[in-house]
Amino acid sequence: MFMLFTRKDNLEGQSLSDFLADSDVKLRNIIRECGNRYCAFNNRASEAEKESQVQELVELIEEMVQSNRGDYFTDAIYKDTEKRLRQREEDLKKIYTDQLNNEIKLVEKEYAHKSQEEREEKIKWLKRIYDEQLKNIREEAEKGIFEHVLDGIRRVLSQIWHTFW
């Protein structure tokens, strides 16, 4: 993650590094969490300055990719995400299995006075639903992980917001 500041023109000759060194400890902590990757854009820059600013940002990205051995994300991020996905899949499978077992028990009670064939047909239908849930378990787990990542981003943005307001 990068911190991209706008309104560099308001620094009035002060370097961004000096400004950040004198800034609130919360902001410095957030920047540290971003791997000390930051830059600022001047809103009133000329076209040449704008190109230079974009080039600076691209260079920061390339440096990060090089430090991550050619990846935009570190291996640790992939491993953590995969671990979370597997755990979420296991949790969902347990939830779906418990749900199936509870529904089968209910069917057995509700269909106790009906024919064996009706009871078995209803249970077979419940198992088909369960099988469909298992087929889609990876996508379901990914939705949960995506929401988790978004929550993390929201927390960081909230910290930034509170730092400045």
TrEMBL record:
| This protein's UniProt keywords | GTP-binding, Nucleotide-binding
- Lineage: superkingdom: Eukaryota
Q: According to its UniProt record, what is one Pfam family this protein matches?
A: AIG1
One GO term in the molecular function aspect is: GTP binding
Which intervals hold domain AIG1-type G?
Answer: 1-82
The family annotation for this protein states: Belongs to the TRAFAC class TrmE-Era-EngA-EngB-Septin-like GTPase superfamily. AIG1/Toc34/Toc159-like paraseptin GTPase family. IAN subfamily.
**Full protein name:** Gtpase imap family member 7-like
Q: What is the species listed in this Swiss-Prot or TrEMBL entry?
A: Lynx pardinus
